[in-house]
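As noted in the main text, all predictions were made from sequence alone. Below is one such record, for N5-carboxyaminoimidazole ribonucleotide synthase.
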Amino acid sequence: GGRIGILGGGQLGRMLASAAARLGYSTHIYEPGACPAADVAADWTQASYEDLSALHGFAEGVDLITFEFENIPSSALDALVSACPVRPGRRALSTSQDRLVEKEFLSTLGLATAPYRNVESLADLNAAIDQIGTPAILKTRRFGYDGKGQVRIADRAEAEVAFAQMAGAPAILEGFVNFSHEVSVIVARNASGQVSCFDPAENLHRDGILRTSTVPARLSNSQQQDAILLAGRIATALDYIGVMGVELFVTPGALVVNEIAPRVHNSGHWTQNGCTIDQFEQHIRAITGLPLGDGRRHADVVMENLIGDDMDRLPALLEEPAAALHLYGKAEVRAGRKMGHVNRVTPLSPRS
Ligand code: ATP
Ligand code: MG
Ligand code: MG
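Prediction:
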């Protein structure tokens, strides 16, 4: 037993809390806003990340803290780590919170990324376009998710409007990667340095939001091997403890690393019905110092996110016998809001 604090009470926090409960841990959620995780956790504190005394009280009451999102302010993190271990740690957070720091880290590991330049002014942006060319994507360095905080630049004439849309936020320009498809690797690492990867999933996005993740992904055996090796290298280089998502672009020449997420990841939800030990349980095992479990895939799975009024299809989904439904318990349906997902499971196909 023991008590795990989870920062963030969205669906990821909710699924972490239920995995923790299965392993005999109680959980305490910290969440400033709406909290779908509240109904599965033992406790819930509703307070902001500016409330340092609430954070301190939360940290004093748990044995270990983890999180479901990477944008924890560093002042909040300071308050927490003074009272309680936080896993994964500071290095993983500071690296993945800032796209520039993240890309520099990946480059020092010798991994391929999109070409990138730091952009602090319109002059920087124009110079970056001269060097990288178009099409390109201007992204805020911090706080982006689901494609928010990004502007595509088709040609130089669009630079000024794109820069204005950043509203003064620090940004990077990324060259457009001409990928054939996108995959991700969910990797787990525990304190003894044991590393385990789930099979790569192939991810389809629409309007910047993940729609489906499919296993097996279309990868040659050597690409699959590369993907798993590079995810392990990233985790080890960060001295990472927990589960991490590594997003990759597949190009003929190389696997290009898009970004890393220091947490359980939407593209790993297929593991709930495709593996004996899913990403949520693997994360709880990793952070609590338990041995990692068996993450081998025993089925083919297509995970489909249920977003906004996809929920109208609920009756039809319930009629599908091999569609495993995972709803998040969110009261209100809104456009673009992730309401649940469904895993469609079929027997393991032979890989060539
Ligand atoms: P997430 O919700 O995964 O955290 P995000 O807001 O951090 O998303 P990215 O992963 O950077 O955004 O980009 C979202 C999607 O936009 C990518 O999955 C990819 O489809 C496309 N994209 C992003 N960067 C590039 C690039 N340099 N070249 C081509 N496509 C890109
Ligand atoms: Mg992201
Ligand atoms: Mg992404």
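DSSP finds eleven helices and 17 strands in the chain. The longest helix spans residues 221-237. These features were considered when defining construct boundaries for the mutagenesis experiments described in Section 2.9.
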